[in-house]
Amino acid sequence: MLNTLERIRGYRVENEQGCLVWKGALEDGYGRTKYKGKRRPVHRILWEEVHGPVVEGYELDHKCRNRACSNINHLRVVTCQQNLLASPITWASINAAKTHCPKGHEYTEDNIYKKVYTSSGKYKRHCKQCKAEYQLRYREAKASKQKEESKIARYRERAARIVEAVKLTFPVTFDCDGETVIAEIGDFLVTEPDGAQVIMDAAEFETEFELMATKGPRPGTPRKKKGEVTAEGASVEALAA
After folding, report:
1. How far is it, in rounded angstroms, from Cα 197 to Cα 208?
2. Do 145 and 178 reside in the same domain of the chain?
3. Is the whole-model pTM more than 0.70?
4. Are the C-beta atoms of 210 and 204 separated by less than 8 Å?
5. Sign of torsion, CA 6 7 8 11?
6. Which of 20, 131, 166, 199 sits CB 3.0–4.6 Å from 12 for a disulfide?
7. Based on the domain organization, do 17 and 87 belong to the same domain?
8. Would you state the pLDDT for residue 150?
9. What CATH number is given to the structural domain containing 32?
10. Counting Cβ atoms within 10 Å, is residue 193 exposed (0-12), middle (13-18) or buried (19+)?
11. How many distinct structural domains can be found in the chain?
């Protein structure tokens, strides 16, 4: 009666590429059988019978790319990374073959940096130009936001100076430092905290005060008013509420 190794060797068929393909059960493409009380890969059983156990940290790679092959001449001892890079269908080899980043920048020694992931010890290539462009966009967006916040703060500060604004429904004559000033219908009489009164036409009032009272325009959105001063005695404070 044949011993186990002889039966394993006899349960293979040779193909045109010289691969000794296992005819029995396959798991994930690899031939497996029970040997010495354990279910093990066929190619590993035959390799270890000739060359001894594979050193820890290394594994067997099929040079023929046929997982069912158990021809020990088609095997080699490699690291896990070498094994992954040797296969054309693994993500490691697919990514390693890329010459440009997703934005089209070439992967050169001067244009890449490696980020190491402490959990696995593996690293990933990153594009320096993409990172520089991202940082520039971030700084510009941050500066724009600070500028807009500063503008809104100025709006609120200036709007707080308004105590009352009255839209005139009839002409009013004022004596300003010996000079006669006539306020037309539709102009605004603005009273400030110190009691000083200022005459503004409708356009000047809208740009200088009413937009401020609405807390300023939001970035990237059209300016909208919360209300209009349309009647005599109306208060701008109501617009800022």
Report:
1. 15
2. no
3. no
4. no
5. positive
6. 20
7. yes
8. 85
9. 3.90.75
10. exposed
11. 3
